[in-house]
Specification:
CATH architecture of the largest domain: 3-Layer(aba) Sandwich
Low-confidence stretches: 1-34
CATH class of the largest domain: Alpha Beta
Strand content: 15-25%
Order of helices and strands: HHEHEHEHEHEHEHEHHHHEEEEEEEHHEH
CATH superfamily of the largest domain: NAD(P)-binding Rossmann-like Domain
Helix content: 25-40%
Structural class: alpha/beta
Length: 419
């Protein structure tokens, strides 16, 4: 965690400016593949990490998985068995390249992989990205990419370093690779619905999985295995899940919100088995031009589900993914391939061609918007972007190990303070 703690606000601002300069100018990129072979290392062998490895394999020819690592041996073993069955001869992990423990990620990064998949719980991603970029690896990392502002500043610094080294970073915000979303939002940017007046987004769905505690598990092992329910590991579900819609809003607006105001709470999912996170949020985000984005997310069984986006302009409206309505009606009718596969194909094409792609800033800003919304709901205050990005609240400990760990109190608006 030393990279994360060492980054000052001044370094962060300077690094972000330099990164922008690099992105704006053409350059020759390092680490260009000289052959079609692509070797992948998997860090974090849960369902999403294992799925990402399969998506990489299915994205193009010549992909093999050569190294794997996870904190837990049972997760590693299960993932190995699943990948063997799907990848067959393209599964090239041996017992010597399958690693368990707190430092397993370092061993995967030290392998001969061309890129690593970061499929760990969100809190671990800043330090792993920093290690991977320092080692000269291309990266696919799942969203969200951090749980607090120090983690976001670390992600932005690593993204800047990736530009300096010509390394590609692709994030698990797969809608940015979906051909329907890309076609619609390109038309929104071209002015087909006029000036943006407002946005509404939702991720209202049911409750997710939970793993019953075993007697031999310490507090930390139980919490990491149920990482969704602990803000220090997941960032709460507004960050872990609703980040997709917040990323769409940023994409449409070509920027990030400047303030957040809203509410949330823990009404139905109150059992201690579900840690201390909220089960619903409703946040009003405001962008620089005073455009208001109304955001809502909920995880409650037995409620009406809605996972979508809606943008209103001066000449029409859009669902952002397939249709534009109003004066100039348009509908996407092309082939929509699996965006979970396309995001890996786009990364691999960048590696093979040397035409760098870097989604680090975009996903960091989407994650930061989610964190800012959580701050507003937890405290009951209006939180500005500058307040949020400069926050010194560090949720994830630098020396986390198995053992006792008390669960934080549920945040109470008006009592919980902004840090």
């Amino acid at each position: 965690m030393s990279d994360r703690r060492a980054l000052s606000r001044r370094d962060f601002i300077a690094g972000s400016a330099a990164a922008g300069a690099v992105l704006a100018s053409p350059r020759l990129f390092a680490n260009t593949q000289s052959s079609d072979s692509i070797k992948v290392g998997l860090i974090g062998c849960g369902g999403r990490g294992t799925g990402a490895a399969v998506d990489a394999f299915r994205s193009t020819k010549g992909v093999s998985v050569i190294a794997m690592g996870d904190l837990f041996e049972d997760r590693l073993t299960s993932s190995r068995n699943n990948l063997k069955a799907v990848l067959k001869d393209s599964y090239k992990v041996t017992d010597d390249s399958a690693h368990v423990g707190w430092d397993a990620y370092k061993k995967v990064i030290a392998s001969d992989a061309d890129y690593v998949i970061i499929g760990t719980p969100p809190a671990f991603r800043p330090q792993i990205l920093a290690e991977a970029i320092n080692a000269g690896k291309h990266v696919f990392m799942e969203k969200p990419v951090a749980v607090d502002a120090p983690g976001i500043r670390s992600i932005l610094e690593s993204s800047h370093k990736a530009d300096m080294k010509g390394l590609s970073i692709v994030a698990g915000t797969q809608r940015r690779h979906d051909r329907g979303y890309r076609a619609v939002i390109e038309r929104i940017h071209d002015g087909q619905i006029g000036d943006i007046r407002s946005m509404r987004t939702w991720w209202n769905g049911g409750e997710l999985w939970h793993k019953a505690r075993k007697p031999e598990w310490s507090d930390v092992e139980y919490q990491v295995r149920n990482w969704l329910y602990y803000t220090y590991l997941s960032g709460d579900h507004i960050t872990e899940q609703h980040v997709h819609q917040l990323d769409i809003a940023n994409w449409v607006m070509q920027g990030h919100p400047v303030k957040a105001y809203g509410m949330g709470g823990r009404q139905k999912r109150t059992d201690p088995a579900y840690g201390h996170i909220y089960d619903h949020f409703a946040i009003q985000y405001t962008f620089e031009n005073e455009m208001v984005h109304h955001s809502m997310c909920r995880q409650m069984d037995g409620t009406a589900s809605r996972v979508s986006e809606h943008v209103t302009g001066s000449k029409g409206t859009s669902n952002c993914s397939t249709n534009i309505y109003g004066d100039d009606v348009w509908k996407f009718v092309g082939k929509r391939e699996n965006p979970y596969v396309l995001e890996h194909r786009d990364l691999i094409n960048a590696i093979r061609s040397g035409n760098q792609v870097n989604e680090g800033v975009n996903v960091a800003h989407a994650t930061m918007a989610a964190i800012m919304g959580r701050m507003a709901a937890y405290t009951g205050k209006e939180i500005t972007w500058d307040m949020a990005i400069n926050s010194e609240e560090e949720l994830f400990p630098s020396n986390l190990q198995f053992g006792d760990r008390a669960v934080a109190e549920v945040a109470i608006p008006g009592i919980t303070q902004f840090v």
